[in-house]
Fold these 2 entries.
Entry 1:
Amino acid sequence: MTTNGEVIDVLLVEDNPQEADIVRLYLAKRHAHIYRLTHVRSIDQALTAIAGERSPGVILLDLHLPGARGLEGFERLAAEVRGVPIIILTNCDEERIAAQAVRGGAQDYLVKREVNAALLHRAIVYAIERQRAERDLIKVKERYALAVEGANDCIWDWDAVSGQAYFSPRWNELVGLENETTVGDLDDWFKRVHPKDIAELKGLMIPPVSGDRNHFEHEHRLRHENGDYIWVYARGVVLTDGGDSAVRMAGSISSITKRKQTERQLMHRALHDALTGLPNRVLFIDRLMQALRRYKRNPALQFAVLYFDLDGFKIVNDSLGHSAGDSLLVSIARRLKSVIRPGDTVARMGGDEFAVLVADIEDEQDIAQVSERIHHLFEREFSVAGRGMYSSASIGIAVITEQYNSPEELLRDADLAMYRAKRSDTEGTVIFDQTMHQAAVSRLNLETDLRRALAQGEFAVFYQPIVTLAERRIVAFEALLRWRHPTKGVLSPSSFLAVVEDSGMLSALSWWVLEEACRQAHSWRNLFPDGETLGVSVNVSANMFREVQSVQRVKDIVRQSGIRPKDLSLEITERDCMDHGDAIKVALRSLREHGIKLHMDDFGTGYSSLSYLQRCTYDSLKIDRSFVQTIHSETHSVSVVKTIVGLGRMLNMNVVAEGVESQDQLDTLLSLDCPEAQGYWFSEPVPPTQIGRLIREAWCLPQL
Ligand code: C2E
Ligand code: CA
Ligand code: CA
């Protein structure tokens, strides 16, 4: 028995001096060093003693005191000394009252006649410990009550005996009840659970077949007073009687509506495009997969994939900035949403690419309608970066057939068809067919061939003279790319240039032609004893001037070749010029300031405005050969040529007619005062080795 060595202050309230002496004796007997006894004779004295500085550690109270009948004395004292254990000393005839006192808060009672030193000591120590334990328990309870009150969770508890349930006040907040409402029944919970969730929840709470303790957790929806459902997470423990009935259940319910919302948002974000809010590629492929599965089960459930990107979207981005590009995409997405049928899916596949899954089609008419509607939505103007603009799309379509086994195959073919549509001048929509697959395969082979050609130096530059019509004098040569194919012979760019461009090799190839042509042009000086020079025209793509340092690179090439800047002309097509942004114009202008000349190629096929021509200042306009070749068959061709020649004169630009093949064409051009021309009539493009011969013939120079 331990008292931790503390001194215990004992307040003895006893009117009988002999009995007080006995108590003193007992306490002193073995534990004199522990006890410090204060003896008073009445309740009043006891109260005075308590009011002193130190409250006693224990009170021994005689029940039989003068002026205090029955429990009266105990009650007065107990009211004053909360927290101090009281032990009742009683005679055997008062045991009943003593027991009452214990129920009223006394720690214990001792029958005087039965007390001995050991018993008294033990009773005191126990009383003190019990009192402490009770105090601690109260603290724990208070702490628990505070925790429940402060917790975000509703704490609940159900008891089989009473059939009653307790739900902490947080419940009311969770479901939006008035604060006064009390919940006393498990059904108050269950009847709020979503019909789809209740069976599962109850299933978890039914006692387990084995074991007497069952933990469960469950997420479900609860009906809020406002009619909405909130998400909660309930966890609890079920205690059973060892059999299959629960005797007690308790647990907590917490709101997880926020977490669910976040989960939903994350899910949405993972499957949708942040900019337009449309489904993204992942979700589209998933839907496609579902459609494919349905089709495999029932081939009557046909569907199609429409794939398209925006024609010339890069230009919008490059010239107006990315936020303008973004805003165009958003507008297009909005219009797309409004034209697709419910049940169809429209997705942004990345960049400026979109796809539509057209479900439940009966014939091609259905698909045609959707593609019509998409083309139609591009007919209205878009408002981007404060200005109106137009956009258009080339659509490729793949329709489900038995051959398809994966969404990727369908997308690949729709993409191929789109590529076709893009290349076509007349068709905005192309439906995939098997021949396209063949074409794609041979294209792929061609691309592989081209890479090899570049690596093994199979490319060559041929030259075609440009001649003054009045004097028939060669003033320059146009450099034209050729591919000396190991098996197919010398190939013209028309058969491979598009693939070169798509595979990203065009720029490298064009730089190579430029270097080659400048080197050649320098070597022609040796053909003239008096140092006469010839110009060289090189075809360039506007893309080359996207590269930083491209202007410097051209200047370097010219300098290193040893020709003068004015001996070089760069030919750029009218279309290419218009399709590109200000950066290219700046580059071209700075080259021109350096002395290099600019030719606008294929003039008449694009839609250059006069003001554009003036702004960009070219040195020459090259009349597209389609006009020269139809100069006698189509009346408007003559007027186009006439107009261009007049335009050149007006703007002080040289004009070159391309593709002159006959004397008649030449005569007409002469009569229209066209200054220069080129074409098979003068010479086909020739390899560099034949240039000496051409020049000698033109100048009738003696053989060197
Ligand atoms: P282009 O710049 O309009 O070149 C003129 C084309 O007309 C050349 O075709 C030339 O061989 C052809 N031609 C010349 N005279 C006649 C004629 O009397 N009748 C006919 N029917 N055609 C004639 P080529 O060499 O096949 O080049 C086609 C196009 O490829 C060129 O059109 C040019 O845009 C492009 N190209 C050629 N070489 C290069 C190059 O090195 N770089 C780049 N970026 N493009 C090039
Ligand atoms: Ca040209
Ligand atoms: Ca041309």
Entry 2:
Amino acid sequence: MTLGLFISFEGIDGAGKSTHVEALAQAFKQAKRRVTLTREPGGTPLAEKLRNMVLNDAMDPLTEALLIFAARRDHLKNVIEPALERGDVVLCDRFTDATFAYQGYGRQFNLEVLSQLERWVQQIESSDQLHQPDMTLWFALDPSIAAQRLVGARVPDRFESQPIDFFKQVHRGYQNRMNESPQRFAQINADQTKEQVWDDVASTLIQKQWLSAHDFSNTGHA
Ligand code: TMP
């Protein structure tokens, strides 16, 4: 039986992670692994509706946190858990670290409440363990560089339109989450060309022995 593998991708808006999620899916497919490519908030019909609200409708921070965790619960139960049980590689564009970074640090919402919601939503049945990614790739980028990259890119949502100080806090949030779980995180320097960032992603996966150099031929952005 092939064991499932759960990898999340994190970073502030403008860090350029999403293109690498797609490319990594190709590399795993080349290695003959089944891939579930998904995102948060979202990934199920219900969670996509909640995403739309969270990104566009005004709400207080507790409502925002509750909707994000409601979306996560639906996503975990209906997509992530079944995929891992089948032995898929689950590539998830953002997961709970984003909630601690954006809601906890960006919005300064109560971290204890977030931890409690995390336990309720992610607890593995009949165990005191939580569902967490096997690895989180954190695309780390100076918020002022990320802001320059986003200028004119698209109509900003409720997060993208935040001031730079918000993203400095979000960046600190990711740093703290990494400090709390250093074995889970791999920090990628996102202040490089797309090809260099991709090389770092590939090296990280090869080092983990989850993929070989051969699986990366004909993939990437070159
Ligand atoms: P995306 O643009 O990477 O798909 O992410 C959507 C936005 O939602 C992004 O600005 C970060 C934000 N977000 C949160 O605020 N909390 C969360 O828990 C997640 C998953 C995303």
